[in-house]
Amino acid sequence: MEVRKAHVRDAKSICELVNHYAEQGLMLHRSLESTYDCLREFWVITEDDTLLACAALDVFWADLAEIRSIAVAEAGQGRGLGRILIEHALEDAKGMGISRVFAMTYEKEFFIRLGFCETPLQSLPEKIWRECLEWYDKGHRHESAMLIDLAGDAT
Ligand SMILES: CC(C)(COP(=O)(O)OP(=O)(O)OC[C@H]1O[C@@H](n2cnc3c(N)ncnc32)[C@H](O)[C@@H]1OP(=O)(O)O)[C@@H](O)C(=O)NCCC(=O)NCCS
């Protein structure tokens, strides 16, 4: 198993994995174009050249970044791969001097296990609310806003 930053050859598999769950309404779709645009933000886990998991860290503002597009293939779930990717993304954030990282998710318990706490949507920038409202307007369930304060994090 290999944990690394994404290569261009991963883009199509990242897109397929994310869109597999997007089809189930669990996360946002990603176009291949946006995957290439954001490729530098992605961490991946592969096994025998097959993509098992991906996650992106999107820098939002001086003190804030978002975990996006975290997905673990069904065959890889429950093996700690999601945890590994979040931990790498948080290390990246710390390395860049970012103090807070958030995620919008239906997987609240997973993020709690990783040290995040639920936060009111209003505590996040307005751009996020707008994305959420568009998501709800399309008939999707409300997500939980999860936040970790890296300045106060002991990990
Ligand atoms: C959510 C997801 C990323 C979790 O990945 P995973 O690799 O299976 O999770 P891990 O094995 O790393 O689990 C880490 C911890 O979270 C817990 N956990 C994981 N999923 C959980 C869930 N659905 N409910 C409660 N706890 C959960 C694990 O028990 C583990 O706890 P521990 O380390 O204290 O023992 C994965 O299930 C997934 O890709 N789901 C579909 C796509 C999706 O919903 N993505 C999230 C969009 S924001």
How is the topology of this model organized?
Blueprint: E1 2-5, H1 11-22, H2 32-37, E2 42-47, E3 50-61, E4 64-72, H3 81-95, E5 100-105, H4 108-113, E6 117-118, H5 126-137, E7 144-149
Parallel strand pairs: 4-5
Antiparallel strand pairs: 1-2, 2-3, 3-4, 5-7, 6-7
Verbal overview:
There is one protein chain. With 155 residues, the protein is of the alpha+beta class. Helices cover 33% and strands 29% of the residues. The protein contains five helices and seven strands. The protein has helices at residues 11-22, 32-37, 81-95, 108-113, 126-137; strands at residues 2-5, 42-47, 50-61, 64-72, 100-105, 117-118, 144-149. Strands 1-2-3-4-5-7-6 form a seven-stranded mixed beta sheet. The protein starts with a strand and ends in a 6-residue tail after the last strand. The model has no long low-confidence stretch (mean pLDDT 95). Coenzyme A (COA) binds at residues 21, 26-27, 70-72, 77-83, 103, 105-107, 109-110, 113.
